[in-house]
Design a protein that fits this description.
Strand content: 15-25%
Order of helices and strands: HHEEEEEHHEEEEEEEEEE
Largest sheet: 4 strands, antiparallel
Number of strands: 15
Bound molecules: 2-amino-4-trifluoromethylsulfanyl-butyric acid, cobalt (II) ion
Oligomer: single chain
Distance between the termini: 41 Å
Structural class: alpha+beta
Number of helices: 4
Shape: globular
Radius of gyration: 17 Å
Length: 281
């Protein structure tokens, strides 16, 4: 159920805003998906900050907290670190992160909804720092959660890891979707198709699409120097979805629970490297 959305939080003037803020949509400059080592350093810093923000917000989740309070924690952390919360004002999105509970697949808007034991909560937060975005999300369980739901969450993270491992240079991006879908199907989970991974870096969404299912439509070749996200959404029931009247919140049509995990990854000569990590090992 939608709750009440609080007034928009402000960002200090000295923090650089992405070009789309205050506009209806981003300008569709095709900026490409491969980056120089200097650019990669900047994406690395934005990604590490996004990962730290995600960790902080997730550590704050407990029964009784509102999703709006979680938004404020993520917002304040990014701003304190001189970053802009990429979702704030992105195509009109009103908050600094997405909170997607239970049957919400993605893009839930923080509001006065109270988190309760038995919920699963996905936090999706993106940092814009020094001209570059880093994007990540994860799902956490709150208190006593049904075992079938815990399994869904654990296996969705495993599906992401398998998708990452499949992202080898020289392969087509659909290999990522194939790895994710074939794993999910073992358990009979629904695989959401219409929301995808994406190129990320100078733009929040570059236009490059990373499918989470096996699709011959997506045949871009993975190359060293590329940066993109992988962010599978798996459901306990069917993968069909509805959108709320807020034009953002996406839920399963059958109201079955849905989990998601996301990393921003860099492709090196040797293979994929996760950039949205707190510690670089
Ligand atoms: N961070 C989301 C993604 O993984 C995008 C959120 S856009 C918003 O691509 F406007 F809904 F915030
Ligand atoms: Co993303
Ligand atoms: Co995201």
């Amino acid at each position: 159920m939608p709750g009440k959305i609080s007034p928009r939080l402000s960002v200090p003037e000295h923090i650089e805003k992405p070009e789309y803020v205050g506009k209806k949509a981003p300008s569709n400059n095709k900026l490409g998906d491969k980056y120089s080592s200097e650019e990669i350093e900047k994406i690395r810093r934005a990604s590490k900050l996004a990962a730290e923000a995600l960790e902080l917000v997730c550590a704050s989740i407990e029964p009784g907290i509102t999703t709006d309070q979680l938004d404020k924690i993520g917002h304040d952390f990014l701003v304190k670190n001189n970053a802009y919360p990429s979702t704030l004002g992105y195509r009109g999105f009103p908050k600094s992160l997405c909170t997607s509970l239970n049957e919400t697949i993605c893009h839930g808007i923080p509001d006065d909804t109270i988190v309760e034991s038995g919920d699963i909560v996905n936090i999706d937060i993106t940092a814009y720092l020094d001209g570059f975005h880093g994007d990540n999300n994860k799902t956490v369980t709150v208190g006593d959660v049904d075992e079938t739901v815990v399994d869904l969450v654990t296996r969705t993270e495993e599906a992401l890891n398998r998708g990452i491992k499949a992202a080898m240079p020289g392969r087509e991006v659909n290999i990522i979707g194939r790895a994710i879908e074939s794993y999910a199907k073992r358990f009979g989970y629904g695989v959401v198709k219409e929301f995808t991974g994406h190129g990320v870096g100078r733009a929040f969404h570059t236009g490059l699409i990373i499918p989470h299912y096996d699709s011959q439509q997506y045949r871009d070749v993975i190359e060293p120097g590329m940066v993109f996200t992988i962010e599978p959404m798996l459901t306990l029931g069917e993968a069909d979805w509805d959108m709320w009247e807020d034009d953002w919140t996406v839920t399963t049509r059958d109201k079955s629970f849905s989990a998601q995990f996301e990393h921003t990854i860099l492709i090196t000569e040797r293979g994929p490297e996760i950039l949205t990590k707190v510690e670089n090992d």
